[in-house]
């Protein structure tokens, strides 16, 4: 049974609050002795170096639990080859909290081509290899070896995106929930603050971890059914049927079930992907808060890619905290139970979290070692959480939700002052004032009732919802107040910008372009062609053109020299060779030459990953005969798509010429402006480097420093500038 959410600051503090606030959460017994601790109540094990700054997960959760009165220790990047490193701080009184860090450990270590990365931005010195593959799993097992009777709670982006049976790109198979493989006791997903505080207080009061089954944003295993719950088979919610002729974002499942119940059986019934439900109770007789949806079992989705796509679609239907129901999925004789998503944090709770006493620097144990991820965000400020864009390749919505959680102006301005006064090396420049999406601050549905009932995966696709407030005035006002603070010379916006929203408020665009662009502004049209854009749930290139016109006009009015840096994805599901050729021609026509490109990376649980694995489109009802999605999978085709994004590089010309000839597009080979590549390869004497804009190399380095560490939201590495 779900219970009302208690505010983060609404709990009675644990008795250990008498020890006060630690300058840093201890990483050694010597530090514990200095603090007067004989033991830790909670120990957080993380795959990242410990940086006491609110862009790092272990700092937020650690400081939050400390504020609740608990003694919290940190074991950062332990040697996982034995359990010894996990005994460093002794036995925790309550539980171990285990997280891979700000990134999924597999994405952290491997490129989109499955090659091992040479570095790790979250490790001192940027050294790679300091964490194991699937490190949440490994760390959890080592905690159990160290102290077998201590509960292990999984959290963070890696656990969040692997909470259910999921496709694993690196093994090219469907793996079971990480909760089973890790042998952990409980999993928290999404924004975990509310859940972890509740769990800590319950365990402190004597609850056994297997008794904690009613907290939102948690997943656990059961062998027996819970009494008093109605169970529905997932096909009653999204029964495969007539194939929609247009892109159809998720509709209300109650309406869909009502339509299905009235429909007479016919030939379409042959398209059903699973058997009839075990038990279905009409909505009028069922308590929605006591309803659980049974997804196809792990064994079924492992062996049937269409069932996997169906399960992925239903999971995404049940992501709105206002109407989501619990999910259950059988795993080898036991049930994985996933409670509905957490209730979003109120502004007061966001302020509370960001106002905790962070040291805002790495732990002193690292000495002078440079931690690249920290250097990138040292002077940046996160103003909000969540994203209602719903891009199918992105993990923000799966992890943080689509309801925007914004901080107050006062809280944000106070943090800027603290950076100014407290963090060494401040030069007066805030490198980023943003979040997962820079311009969604305080944007929300105009009606809370509509918001609570909505099942659309995106508020801006296929067009901006008429119920969405697109007024950017709160953000414009924040920018003005922030740059007026004494000691602040410049406020930059380096987070990704949702340009289709920005053009709805020209005053915001003018404010941004005039005062907050550091020479280059990154935006992400991702593609030019309708096929892949529909599979991404991204707007057409016309929205980019509108924003580009505004950007250039306001740049000229400000008397500045500034450039847009558009990002594009190669080899995304739904992309054909023809699509990539058309994109390359567009790039050439617009005289844009990308220094680096990004290929689609199938992250766990993303909708686009389900397309990649199944060849089906979960944005529509899924059936064996439903729409198929063409996906570039072979190394050769992925290489070609990346090469087309760098059409100007002579090294790519032979591959592009070969593809054009195979496609009977020889007319695109030649020296003309409307032709893609020359007919002949340059010799060593005539070959020269592609022209670059003035100071572009130094600008690239500056941009890397400005780029926010948004991997805690997306699970993906920071995009490199073009």
Secondary structure topology:
Layout: H1 29-35, E1 42-46, H2 57-67, E2 72-76, E3 95-99, H3 105-109, H4 135-146, E4 152-155, H5 156-161, E5 166-168, E6 173-175, H6 178-181, E7 186-188, H7 193-204, E8 218-222, E9 230-233, H8 234-237, H9 253-262, E10 291-294, H10 298-303, H11 305-317, E11 326-331, E12 334-338, H12 347-354, H13 372-377, E13 380-382, E14 384-385, H14 396-400, E15 405-406, H15 409-422, E16 429-430, E17 432-434, H16 448-453, H17 473-483, E18 490-491, H18 499-502, H19 506-515, E19 520-526, H20 530-536, H21 541-557, E20 563-570, H22 577-589, E21 598-599, H23 607-614, H24 635-645, H25 653-662, H26 696-706, H27 711-714
Parallel strand pairs: 1-2, 1-3, 3-4, 4-7, 9-10, 10-11, 13-17, 16-18, 19-20, 20-21
Antiparallel strand pairs: 5-6, 7-8, 8-12, 11-12, 14-15
Summarize the structure in words:
By secondary structure, the chain is an alpha/beta fold. The protein folds into three domains: 15-223, Rossmann fold (3-Layer(aba) Sandwich); 230-317, no CATH class; 379-649 and 690-714, Alpha-Beta Horseshoe (pyruvate-formate lyase- activating enzyme), CATH 3.80.30.20. The protein has 27 helices and 21 strands. A ten-stranded mixed β-sheet has the order 2-1-3-4-7-8-12-11-10-9, sandwiched between helices. A three-stranded parallel β-sheet has the order 19-20-21. It is globular and about 75 Å long. Residues 240-285 and 690-722 have low confidence and may be disordered.
């Amino acid at each position: 049974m779900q219970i009302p959410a208690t505010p983060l600051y609404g709990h009675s503090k644990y008795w250990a609050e008498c020890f006060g606030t630690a300058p840093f959460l201890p990483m050694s017994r010597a530090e514990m002795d200095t603090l007067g601790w004989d033991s830790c109540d909670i120990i957080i094990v993380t795959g990242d170096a410990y940086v006491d700054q609110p862009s790092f997960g272990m700092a937020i959760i650690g400081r939050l639990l400390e504020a609740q009165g608990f003694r919290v220790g940190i074991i950062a990047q332990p040697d996982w080859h034995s359990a010894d490193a996990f005994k460093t701080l002794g036995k925790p009184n309550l539980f171990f909290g285990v997280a891979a860090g700000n990134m999924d450990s597999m994405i952290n270590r491997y490129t989109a081509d499955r090659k091992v990365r040479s570095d790790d931005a979250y490790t001192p010195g940027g050294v790679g290899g300091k964490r194991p593959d699937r490190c949440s799993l490994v760390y959890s097992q080592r905690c159990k070896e160290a102290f077998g009777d201590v509960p292990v709670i999984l959290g963070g982006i890696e656990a969040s995106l692997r909470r259910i049976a999921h496709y694993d790109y690196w093994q090219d198979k469907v793996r079971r929930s990480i909760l089973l493989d890790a042998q952990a006791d409980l999993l928290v997903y999404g924004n975990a603050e509310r859940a972890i505080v509740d769990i800590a207080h319950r365990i402190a009061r004597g609850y056994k971890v297997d008794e904690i089954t009613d907290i939102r944003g948690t997943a656990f295993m059961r062998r027996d059914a819970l009494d008093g719950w109605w169970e529905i088979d997932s096909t009653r919610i999204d029964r495969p049927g007539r194939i929609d002729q247009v892109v159809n974002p998720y509709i209300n499942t109650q309406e869909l079930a009502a339509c299905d119940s009235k429909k007479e059986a016919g030939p379409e019934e042959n398209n059903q992907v699973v058997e009839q439900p075990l038990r279905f109770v009409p909505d009028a007789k069922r308590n929605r808060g006591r309803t659980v949806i049974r997804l196809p079992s792990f064994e079924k989705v492992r062996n049937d890619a269409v069932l996997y796509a169906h399960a992925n679609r239903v999971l995404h239907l049940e992501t709105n905290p206002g109407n989501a129901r619990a999910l259950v999925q059988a795993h080898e004789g036991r049930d994985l139970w996933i409670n509905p998503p957490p209730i979003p944090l109120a502004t007061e709770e966001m302020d509370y979290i960001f106002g905790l006493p962070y040291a805002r620097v790495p732990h002193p144990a690292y000495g002078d070692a440079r931690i690249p991820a920290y250097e990138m965000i040292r002077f940046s400020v996160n103003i909000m959480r969540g994203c209602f864009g719903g891009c199918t390749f992105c993990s923000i919505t799966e992890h943080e939700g689509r309801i925007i959680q914004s901080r107050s102006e006062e809280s944000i301005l106070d943090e800027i002052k603290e950076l100014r006064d407290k963090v060494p090396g401040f030069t007066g420049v805030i490198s980023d004032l943003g979040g997962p999406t820079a311009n969604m601050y305080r944007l929300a549905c105009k009606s809370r009732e509509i918001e609570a009932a909505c099942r659309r995966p995106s508020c801006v696709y296929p067009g901006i919802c008429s119920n969405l407030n697109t007024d950017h005035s709160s953000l414009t006002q924040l920018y003005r107040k922030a740059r007026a603070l004494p000691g602040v010379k410049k406020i930059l916006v380096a987070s990704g910008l949702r340009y289709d929203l920005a053009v709805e408020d020209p005053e915001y665009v003018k404010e941004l372009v005039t005062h907050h662009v550091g020479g280059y502004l990154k935006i992400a049209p991702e593609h030019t062609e309708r096929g892949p854009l529909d599979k991404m749930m991204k707007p057409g290139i016309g929205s980019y053109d509108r924003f580009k016109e505004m950007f250039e006009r306001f740049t000229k009015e400000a008397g500045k020299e500034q450039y847009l840096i558009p990002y594009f994805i190669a080899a995304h599901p739904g992309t054909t060779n023809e699509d990539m050729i058309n994109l390359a021609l567009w790039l050439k026509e617009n005289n844009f030459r990308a220094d680096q490109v990004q290929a689609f990376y199938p992250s766990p649980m993303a909708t686009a990953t389900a397309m990649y694995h199944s060849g089906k489109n979960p944005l529509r009802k899924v059936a064996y005969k439903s729409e198929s999605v063409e996906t570039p999978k072979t190394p050769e085709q992925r290489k070609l798509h990346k090469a087309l994004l760098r059409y100007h590089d002579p090294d790519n010309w032979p591959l592009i010429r070969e593809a054009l000839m195979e496609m009977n597009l020889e007319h695109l080979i030649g020296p003309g402006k409307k032709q893609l590549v020359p007919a002949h390869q340059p010799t060593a004497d005539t070959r020269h480097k592609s022209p670059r804009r003035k100071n572009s190399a130094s600008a690239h380095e500056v941009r890397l420093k400005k780029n926010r560490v948004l991997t805690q939201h997306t699970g993906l590495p920071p995009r490199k500038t073009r």
